[in-house]
Amino acid sequence: MTTKQRFYKTVTADVLVEGFGVFLDGRKLVTPAKKPLIVANLATAQLIAAEWEAQSETINTTTMPITRLVNVAIDRTPNARAEMAQEIRKYASTDLLCYRTSAPQKLAQKQVEIWNPILLWAKQDLGLDMAMSIDSLALVQSEKTLNEVEALAVQLDDLTLTLLAFLVPLCGSAILGFAMLRHQLSANQVFEAIRIEENHNAEIWGHDYEDLDKAQEKLADLLAVERILAALQI
Question: If you write DSSP's letter for every residue of the chain in order, what string do you get?
Answer without folding.
Answer: --EEE---S-EEEEE-SSSEEEEETTEEPB-TTS-B--BSSHHHHHHHHHHHHT--SEEEGGG-HHHHHHHHHHHTGGGTHHHHHHHHHHHHHT-GGGEE---SHHHHHHHHHHHHHHHHHIIIII------EES-S-----HHHHHHHHHHHHTS-HHHHHHHHHHHHHHT-HHHHHHHHTTSS-HHHHHHHHTHHHHHHHHHH---HHHHHHHHHHHHHHHHHHHHHHHHH-
